């Protein structure tokens, strides 16, 4: 998904030390970040982390207590929501229930001086773009959740905003529909080339859809990176825990000179690259490892890098995958690993002894 | 039915409630000045007498004027208060909205006496306008309660969406909010209208002696000869109420159908 071309695009949104207070509550605590033009950007975090508030400061629904928000180089201070070059898709979709689908989609064109025929054409095009061709005359309330979602998209995109803001747009859909809409949103974003900013608490959704993701906790951006970096090199245990699953093992730093040599429980001595070391050095030292970076070795297979012995403590069968809790020899708690159920590969039993292959390159050191 | 006692209770309750009303049209068409069984024959004389009563017509006109003006003013004031209480947060909101809706449980007698004292001491002469003043005071709480419910059922993001799509606060109100709370506005208007038209205490206290329907009917009931034509008037009022109820229900259902909401009760 990573779109490397986005890095040399101009800035579309810039936050400079943005703070927001609700009375005594400090909702945004010094947000500084830039979002590039044409980027699919996600604000990811648990509920109450300030992601929706941040989105609403772009839309103009929320004033900021201090700092600066720039859209396309212009300071948005004092610029009302109805004149900002942004449009929003609301979590509840906010489809006007007393209007038809085409009246909803064409709502933003009401003040546009273009002719009636041109407006009708624009509405038809917008509906076709979201896959609702021929639905114009329907009553808005007669639509399914997915269709409402599309109407909300068409209604926002018809104004050709510089930025499209999406506030948890898929959270109300069922799993199948959500996955389908994820793909469609990506396609739509590539087609129109508009900057999309998505708010979500679903880390998988953010990974699938985004060029870059800002992970937020308690009103601050914890890490801003492309999905792969975020997944493979989370900069804190908190980010690592929030995005996917990560196994942590206590560790001790033995020496550092460029590279860092550590002794990690269950893994023994490993030498790590500086890029694998995260944190300021004030936290407790541990190494982290994603479940898919450990592989059970079956008969005849050998490790390309490092190999350890382990005992199976738990087996969870998912059909396409099997999850194992393995206790590496010398460890005081198990690590969770995932194995794809390739045809012919046996599923191990609880209590079985097995060899596991892993690579120091997949480890991240937090300190 | 598991509880036969409850069933008879329900039936007796409904009889007690509606049977007297059925007597109105029966005696309105009964060819006798005495309101008693057995019935003596069919006549439309009482309706003719009612129609010919010029005082009654003035009373009806006055009452209608009072009711329409009261319903309009109360509903407009109700819209302001409901919108302010649902959409905005301000200091002292709780107590202020509480005080606005307090007349709901305040005896009308008190309102009437207090207003009369104030008006007289201010040297304001009594007229149908002083009655309207009193009625607005009594009806506004109902309007506020009904409209608060209507505004509360609005998703706030609808408003933001319209604003986001380029509309001003005023045009958002006109294009989105007003149409969606219209069923509430109609209910409020009809309820205020009904309260005003049959209100007696304030109309009696704050009236200038100009005939007002409720006061006029009460006055006429003292003369047995006038009772049958009052029965005829009662019949007309019952029909009018039913018509209003049907209109209100029609708009309520239409409003629900239009917005695809779920029907959660109503009258009919």
From TrEMBL, chain A:
Q: Name one Pfam family in it.
A: TOBE_2
Q: What does this protein do?
A: Part of the ABC transporter complex PotABCD involved in spermidine/putrescine import. Responsible for energy coupling to the transport system.
Q: Which GO terms describe its biological process?
A: putrescine transport
Q: Which UniProt keywords apply?
A: ATP-binding, Cell membrane, Membrane, Nucleotide-binding, Translocase, Transport
- Full protein name: Spermidine/putrescine import ATP-binding protein PotA
Subunit annotation = The complex is composed of two ATP-binding proteins (PotA), two transmembrane proteins (PotB and PotC) and a solute-binding protein (PotD).
User: Could you tell me the gene encoding this protein?
Assistant: potA
Enzyme Commission code: 7.6.2.11
Source organism (scientific name)? Neogemmobacter tilapiae
Q: Catalysed reaction per UniProt?
A: ATP + H2O + polyamine-[polyamine-binding protein]Side 1 = ADP + phosphate + polyamineSide 2 + [polyamine-binding protein]Side 1
> Which molecular-function annotation in GO is an example for this chain?
ABC-type polyamine transporter activity
Similarity remark: Belongs to the ABC transporter superfamily. Spermidine/putrescine importer (TC 3.A.1.11.1) family.
- Start and end residues of each ABC transporter domain: 13-243
> GO CC annotation: what is one?
ATP-binding cassette (ABC) transporter complex
TrEMBL record, chain B:
Q: Where in the cell is it found?
A: Cell membrane
One GO biological process term is: transmembrane transport
What is the membrane topology listed in the Swiss-Prot or TrEMBL record?
Multi-pass membrane protein
**What highest taxon heads this organism's lineage?**
Bacteria
Q: Which Pfam families match?
A: BPD_transp_1
Main subcellular localisation: membrane
Q: Where is the ABC transmembrane type-1 domain?
A: 60-248
The reply to whether DNA-binding figures as a keyword in the UniProt entry is no
* A Gene Ontology term for the protein's cellular component: plasma membrane
Q: Family per UniProt?
A: Belongs to the binding-protein-dependent transport system permease family. CysTW subfamily.
- PANTHER family, sorted: PUTRESCINE TRANSPORT SYSTEM PERMEASE PROTEIN POTI (PTHR43848)
Q: What is this protein called?
A: Spermidine/putrescine ABC transporter
The record lists the organism as Neogemmobacter tilapiae
């Amino acid at each position: 998904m990573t779109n490397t071309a986005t890095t040399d695009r101009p800035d579309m949104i810039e936050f400079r030390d943005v703070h927001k207070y609700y009375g005594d509550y400090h909702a945004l605590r010094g947000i500084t970040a830039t979002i590039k033009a044409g980027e699919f950007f996600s604000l990811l975090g648990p509920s109450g982390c300030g992601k929706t508030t941040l989105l609403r400061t772009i839309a103009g629904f929320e004033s900021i207590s201090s700092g600066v928000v720039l859209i396309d180089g212009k300071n948005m201070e004092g610029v009302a929501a109805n004149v900002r070059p942004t449009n929003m898709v609301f979590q509840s979709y906010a489809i006007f229930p007393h209007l038809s689908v085409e009246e909803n989609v064409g709502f933003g064109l009401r003040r546009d001086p273009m002719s009636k025929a041109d407006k009708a054409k624009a509405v038809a095009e917008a509906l076709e773009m979201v896959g609702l061709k021929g639905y114009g005359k329907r009553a808005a309330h007669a639509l399914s959740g997915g269709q409402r979602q599309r109407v909300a998209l068409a209604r926002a995109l018809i104004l050709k905003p510089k930025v499209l803001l999406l506030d948890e747009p898929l959270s109300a859909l069922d799993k199948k529909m959500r996955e389908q809409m994820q793909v469609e949103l990506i396609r739509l974003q590539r087609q129109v080339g508009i900057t999309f900013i998505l708010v979500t608490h679903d880390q998988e959704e953010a990974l699938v859809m985004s060029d870059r993701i800002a992970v937020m906790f308690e009103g601050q951006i914890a890490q801003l990176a492309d999905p792969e970096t975020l997944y493979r090199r989370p900069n804190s245990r908190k980010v690592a825990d929030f995005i996917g699953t990560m196994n942590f093992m206590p560790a001790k730093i033995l020496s550092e000179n460029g590279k860092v040599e550590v002794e990690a429980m269950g893994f023994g001595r490993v030498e790590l690259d500086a890029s694998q070391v995260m944190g300021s050095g004030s936290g407790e030292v541990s190494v982290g490892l994603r479940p898919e970076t450990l592989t059970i070795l079956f008969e005849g297979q050998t490790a390309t890098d490092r190999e350890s012995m382990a005992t199976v403590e738990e087996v969870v069968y998912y059909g396409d995958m099997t999850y194992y809790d393995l206790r590496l020899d010398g460890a005081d708690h198990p690590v969770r690993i995932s194995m794809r159920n390739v045809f012919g590969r046996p599923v191990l039993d609880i209590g079985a002894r097995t060899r596991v292959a892993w690579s120091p390159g997949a480890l991240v050191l937090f300190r | 039915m598991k509880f036969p006692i409850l069933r008879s209770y329900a039936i007796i309750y409904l009889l007690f409630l509606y049977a007297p009303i059925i007597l109105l049209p029966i005696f309105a068409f009964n060819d006798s000045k005495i309101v008693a069984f057995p019935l003596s024959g069919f006549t439309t004389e009482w309706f003719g007498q009612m129609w010919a009563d010029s005082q009654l017509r003035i009373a009806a006109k006055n009452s209608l004027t009072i009711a329409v003006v009261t319903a309009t003013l109360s509903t407009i004031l109700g819209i302001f208060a409901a919108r302010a209480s649902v959409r905005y947060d301000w200091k002292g909101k709780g107590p202020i909205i509480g005080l606005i809706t307090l007349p709901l449980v305040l005896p009308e007698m008190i309102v009437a006496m207090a207003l009369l004292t104030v008006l007289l001491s201010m040297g304001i002469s009594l007229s149908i306008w002083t009655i309207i003043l009193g009625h607005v005071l009594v009806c506004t709480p109902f309007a506020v309660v009904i409209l608060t419910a209507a505004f509360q059922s609005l998703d706030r993001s609808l408003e933001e969406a319209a604003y986001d799509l380029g509309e001003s606060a005023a045009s958002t109100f006109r294009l989105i909010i007003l149409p969606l709370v219209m069923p509430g506005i109609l209910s409020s208007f009809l309820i205020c209208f009904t309260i005003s038209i049959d209100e007696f205490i304030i109309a009696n206290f704050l009236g200038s002696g100009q005939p007002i329907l409720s006061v006029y009917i009460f006055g006429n009931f003292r003369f047995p000869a006038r009772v049958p034509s009052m029965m005829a008037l009662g019949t007309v009022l019952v029909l009018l109420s039913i018509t209003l109820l049907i209109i209100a229900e029609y708009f309520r259902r239409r409003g629900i159908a239009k917005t695809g909401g779920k029907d959660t009760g109503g009258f009919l």
